[in-house]
Amino acid sequence: MTTITVHVTRADQAANPYFYVPFDVPEGTTRIDVTMAYAKAEDCIIDLGVLDRRATDYPSRAGFRGWSGGARDRFFVATDDATPGYIHGEMPAGRWQGMLGLYKLPPEGVDVTLTVSHDNAPRRLEPQPARTFPVRKAAGWYRGDLHCHTFHSDAAGSPELLHAAAKQAGLDFLAVADHNTISQRCYFHPNSSSDLVFVRAMEVTTAVGHANVFGIDDWIDFRMTRPEHGHTLADMVHERGGLLSINHDKPTIPWDYDVPEIDCMEVWQSHWMAWNWVSLGRYQQRLASGKRISAIGGSDFHQPARLMPEGPLGLARPTTVLWLEELSEDAILAAMKAGRGYITERPSGPHLALSIDGQPMGSTVRGPVEAKAEVNGAKGDRLLWFDASGQIADEIIEDDHWVGQYSGRPSLFLRAEIAAEKSRPQLIGDFTAALGGGLPWQLTEVELQQQTVRRAISNPIYVV
How does 222-236 read in b/e, with b if 16+ C-beta sit within 10 Å? Predict the structure, then answer.
């Protein structure tokens, strides 16, 4: 057993938010156990992870063995198993590094002690989980949640519980984007099926920005410390054939890196009142600047330790709805990148399908245009039309099965939103009832009473 104590300060944090504690793993080791101890407090929170000897400085392509953020103070890694958030497998001898994330430190700094023990008992070398390729051979609108978490990062609930919650919500696909790790795939790879397709995902999580990576088996190095590392992240993702989405670019965790080449943007995260008008406004600005970015949504649901009933703060609030020729991970990723869908408040929320001369969302057409928006389930609410100049038209939705029309020459793109009018009192009432008292996310009664509540948001059609 080895015990190592270090003193970390705000000067260390300013120099690099990741502090490394080296330790040696002897030849023949089949398991290590690591425990961290420090004086945890409101102003003192330290994250925990580990790299093996193959890791390099940022950006590293190998050597990641796990990350638990502030959710755990101990872990094990072995050839056959590992703590959730950590990666089992070969145990290369040599210099490993405990990784401390210096999230919050008091003015005087803090002592941190790592205790490392090694075991060389015989163990099997278990392979990494293999991706599966389920397919449902039917074209149609498919519903999913592209952002949620299990106890492989900072949620209390298991993958099995999240799986049950997704089935309860009636979803067709689910992206489980645990923070800075891919260990959740031990469950989700073998359990992906044509009933519920699991999309490979990981949430790159730092103190100044979060982003989801989709469609990649590899771990992506999250240790971003400079504004330009936003571009490094995009390069790593695209080199591996994945998609990159900036998450919840709004209070309280906006994106403070350079904005790189992104495929998608999480325009709507959690309940609409969680400041989503800010991220939608930033999405509108990026489209108006000439960028082509697909809009997606995700609940950011952290599965509790029990299966919860459906509600406005649950899984698939909001839901991303995609038109697919078949239900498969490859088809989902292609539709996300192409913008072939819309975001709605819940799995049974309003339907909003925008088209121009038969061309679907995400297409490019020539102006002037004759556009239509097929709307279901929003009678008495309003349909808003937008181009690069902002809102350009507004219609009352007259029936539960209704088609809105727009004719003209929109600037750069055309997209649509459903804004709650008749439904607003019920939606706000359901939201406040679910809270059980008080307002979250630093909301005030002013926002609650004055902000326009969106029920659905389409992807744009681009106009040249």
Answer: bbbeeeebbebbbeb
Pick the CATH number of 350-464 from 2.60.40.10, 3.30.390.30, 1.10.238.20, 3.50.50.60: 2.60.40.10
Which is nearest to 211 in space by CA: 114, 315, 300? 300
Task: For the domain made up of 132-349, give the CATH fold.
Answer: TIM Barrel (3.20.20)
Topology (CATH level 3) of domain 2-119? Jelly Rolls (2.60.120)
* Strand order across the 94-104 sheet: 18-25, 94-104, 45-51, 64-69
Is-contact 103 84, C-beta < 8 A? no
Question: Is 152 within 8 Å of 184 (Cβ atoms)?
Answer: yes
What's 128's DSSP letter? Answer: P
Kindly report, residue by residue over 293-341, the tens digit of the pLDDT. 999 999 999 999 999 999 999 999 999 999 999 999 999 999 999 999 9
pTM of the full structure: 0.97
Among positive and negative, which fits the CA dihedral 262, 453, 423, 345? Answer: positive
